[in-house]
Amino acid sequence: xxxxxxxxxxxxxTESKEMQExxxxxxxxxxxxxxxxxxxxxxxxxxxxxYTGIPESILEQVVTDSSGQAEVxxxxx
Length: 77
Known about the structure:
Helices cover 6% and strands 30% of the residues. It is built from one helix and six strands, in the order E-E-H-E-E-E-E. It has one helix at 17-21, and strands at 9-10, 13-14, 26-29, 46-50, 58-63, 73-76. The strands form three sheets. It has a two-stranded antiparallel ribbon with strand order 1-2. Residues 1-10 have low confidence and may be disordered.
């Protein structure tokens, strides 16, 4: 996936389309785990993050804290 930004003119120059296409997607992922029975947070839930369709190739593993929240994972594509 590629991130596109509007072409902006700056003192007569134009940002190239090629430069825009070379930008990569970035973001953050934070997972919260709660019980489906009573919506309480789930402590020490183990979460494995992998590419879609390749579950055996784990990119990152995180564990939830006492509030059911995992640490923030930085994403880049």
